[in-house]
Amino acid sequence: MRVFLAGASGAIGRQLVPLLVAAGHEVAGTTRSEAKVEMLRELGAEPVLIDVYDAERLRDAVLAFGPELVMHQLTDLPQDPRQISEKAADNARVRTEGTRNLIAAAQTAAAPRFLAQSIAWRLPGDAHTPVEEHEAMILDAGGVVAHYGRFYGPGTYHEEDRPEPPYVHVAEAARQTVELLEAPSGVVEIVES
Q1: Domain count, the chain
Q2: Helix or strand or coil: residue 7?
Q3: What confidence tens digit (pLDDT) does each residue in 156-184 have?
Q4: Cβ distance 144 to 185 under 8 Å?
Q5: Among 18, 40, 74, 184, which one is least packed by beta carbons within 10 Å?
Q6: Is residue 74 part of a domain?
Q7: Is there a domain that residue 170 lies in?
Q8: Which segments of 53-159 are extended strands (E)?
Q9: Nearest to 31 by CA among 17, 43, 13, 49
Q10: Phi and psi at residue 167, in whole multiples of 5°?
Q11: 72 with 116: CB under 8 angstroms?
């Protein structure tokens, strides 16, 4: 399967690329950082240097690759977890505008499958509204929503410890995500019991 993986250089993306490649899939992986292009190539992906907010370039990149599945693993989280609240609007934008752009690109390219990450817990107050909008767009497009627990493990805020539940090791989240490539539209929980 040809997989266009938006967010391939993130914590779960770096886990997903080698699993997808090992399973025989061809992967185009996006990053906004030129410094991460070579890392994606070494993991086995065809690197795509692009910003999800550049809808026209994104559409052209997805069309050029011709994916059978577009996977949305994008976030816009700060390096310092203490800044999550003050940077919440950035991540909300990825969930709204970024999701709209990715779905539009996937539909233009006639990609038959769409899979996107979301969260398995509720954000307080109005902060959860972009999450609901994000998930509604994915389901309206016939896609799969992966409700991940809070990640722990390499490249996460919790490399050495577990966060509060619900949680899931980032490598296990990636493994279970690969099993969803041909799943029917709906919501799937990926958390540790």
Answers
A1: 1
A2: coil
A3: 999 999 999 999 999 999 999 999 999 99
A4: yes
A5: 184
A6: yes
A7: no
A8: 69-72, 113-119, 144-148, 150-152
A9: 49
A10: -140, 165
A11: yes
Note if the pTM is more than 0.85: yes
> Are the beta carbons of 105 and 114 closer than 8 angstroms?
no
d(CA 96, CA 193): 30
Separation between Cα atoms, residue 18 and residue 151, nearest integer Å: 18
Domain of residue 91 covers: 2-138
Residue 48 is encoded by which pair of tokens? 């795509």
State how far the Cα of 6 lies from the Cα of 182, in Å rounded to an integer.
18
Q: What is the CATH number of the domain that holds 125?
A: 3.40.50.720
Q: Is 37 a member of any domain?
A: yes
**Residue 46 φ then ψ, to 5°:** -85, 110
pLDDT of residue 193: 84
